[in-house]
Design a protein that fits this description.
This protein has 418 residues and is of the alpha+beta class. It has 3 domains: 150 residues, no CATH class; 94 residues, Helix Hairpins (Orthogonal Bundle), CATH 1.10.287; 136 residues, Heat Shock Protein 90 (2-Layer Sandwich), CATH 3.30.565.10. Helix content is 55%, strand content 19%. A 5-stranded mixed sheet has the order 6-8-9-11-10. Strands 1-4-3-2 form a 4-stranded antiparallel sheet. It has a two-stranded antiparallel ribbon with strand order 5-7. A hairpin with a 2-residue loop joins strand 10 and strand 11. Helix 1 runs antiparallel to helix 2, helix 4 runs antiparallel to helix 6 and helix 6 packs parallel to helix 10.
Amino acid sequence: MKLFTKYNRLTLIATISVFIIGSCTFYFVLKYILINEMDESLYNEKQEITSFYSSHHTLPDIINTNEQKTTYNVAIAAIPLKVYNTDVHYLRSDEWSRKMEFGIPSGGQTIKVTISKPLEETEDLLQIIIIVTICMIGLILLTGFLINRAVINRLWRPFHNTISKIRGYKVEEMQEITLEPTSIDEFNLLNRNIDEMIKRVQKDFQTLREFTSYAAHEMQTPLAVIRTRLDMIIQDEQLLKNNASQFADIENSVRKLSRLYQSLLLLTKLENHQFVLNEDVPITDLIRKKAEEYKELALAKGIKINVNVETLTITSHTYLADIIIGNLLSNAIRYNIPNGEIDITLYGDTLTISNTSELAEIKQENLFKRFYRHADVKEDGNGLGLAIVKRICDAAGCSISYHYADAKHFFTIVFSSI
């Protein structure tokens, strides 16, 4: 949820709540004031009648109008000095009216005097005032909302500009980001911290890149020496006969270290943009060639490779395209099951390689993580295969995705953006 939306929602809920409570309070307070004024008017009428009776010892003549009705009746019971009541009473029609009752002693009996005034005008006035008030408050709320929307959008524009600039930032490209100063201190503080963070990240990344590059190059000479000396030692048949398993372990370790060296060197070249992607690569022929290369390795595990491809040529780099298909096909064989299957399909610009496997679905956060290996994996590997494939796809401008269904792992590459 956006900050502006959340702010508006909270403000709207609070405003409506205050508006409802305030309107109800205003209604009852205003009604109390108007009723109190009417009671004052009834009380003045009572004073006139009692004054007239005191002066003339008789009640004044009754003159009923639409605005007031007065009645005299002999009281059966004692009547308080004055009683105010709101009731349905006939004046112009059956409507709500406010009446006052009081007694006047006369000739040994008590005359009950009832004075009634209609509440219709009071209610009409009350409704008009309430409607006008509601309209005014509604207009104020609408105006405030529109002003807040315009002001907040303008105030948050520097923030959105900053977000748009850092959204496409890629540390491996060592991009320079210029964040413009604003008139808001908080956004200036944010921009300064982002600038400092980017510089630190770039420095750390450059250090890591140089270390990887140096490490990869420095590994080359010791590996060559170890491989040469190992070949010389293996020439001694007697020594080989007594230590065959140890030499096999050493050779496997050297081979694994050599693959690691090649992978690190490739990643370094990719991150340094040392490959020019301007070659016409016949993906269809490349897939058939790699399937043929891995055919014997697959047959050794009883794995069947099904190839169903259409003709496709892309502009990329032949070596990188070879690595993508080779790594995916190698993983499909390595992590397959005995007598399993591998399906390679190419329709349009979409390549899909799937394989049967006993391994569970790979979590997305671990999918292309460098040096990640599943806990159940027993085959040799350095955990860089998928990371290299992802890095090549990013460099080439194509997309790679993964999903798991029916005990099969599916890797899909779309070349449309190349």
